[in-house]
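Contributing new complexes? Match this layout with manganese (II) ion.
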Amino acid sequence: MKLSTAELRRLERQGFLILPDLFSEAEADALAARLPALFADGHPGNIVERASGAVRTAMGLHLRDDLYARLVRDPRLIAPARQIRPEPLYVQQVKVNVKAAFSGEVWQWHYDFATHHAEDGVPRPLALNLHVFLDDVTDVNGPLYFIPGSHAYGSHETRLDTETTSYPLWVVDEPLVRDLADAHGIVAATGGKGTVLVFVDTLVHGSPVNMSPWDRAIFSLIVNPVSNAYRETNRPDHKHHRDLTPIEPLTDGGRLGTRAA
Ligand code: SIN
Ligand code: MN
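Output block (do not edit by hand):
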């Protein structure tokens, strides 16, 4: 899997890419099938919604499940990441954000670097967020919203929001979002199961509540150059992994869904 020159240019211009069909439905289903046991195992990386108690995000999954351990080394994620950042990369964060049917809550407007910098002392906005859709993500089940081009402004003013949801997040306030959205619009990142998103660390994004009857689970791997690693360890390992071993992509070419677990 190699990104074309046009895709690389698009990433530079928009700050994100939507790449349909990189993983098969069977692979997405195999990954999703691991979730109920992971959600029930009492791990501190499982963080629940305030209101419903349903799992909102389950973190550190590559250390908890063999299929997710393979996924973080999958060439369909790692080859593009290495193309964009051609230097040794480590696994910074691994999670599934769930957004359960009827009860999945908002992810406020934010950009990831604000948290990486403020909480973990990451010096520069070089991390990449790589998503794989484990459900079909539509206009109505809480897709990510991106503000195209918002990454180009670099760091915006942010505020730590510990009130809105169970997950503390450095957020971008409404007046700035309005200015950015008026200038650039908003794109809903939708697609079938197996779609991949790639986006950069200063891209402003968020997602609305899921009031539909359909779950919306999305896998997220954040990779960061080893040379740009965290300088502080305020957060638990599952929020920012300490292990700086460079990621080596799988070489066996095994498809996730066809492997015995
Ligand atoms: C979401 O799962 O909707 C938010 C994901 C993110 O902020 O990366
Ligand atoms: Mn984010």
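Reviewers usually confirm one structural detail per submission. For this one: Helices lie at 5-14, 25-33, 35-39, 66-71, 75-84, 112-120, 174-184.
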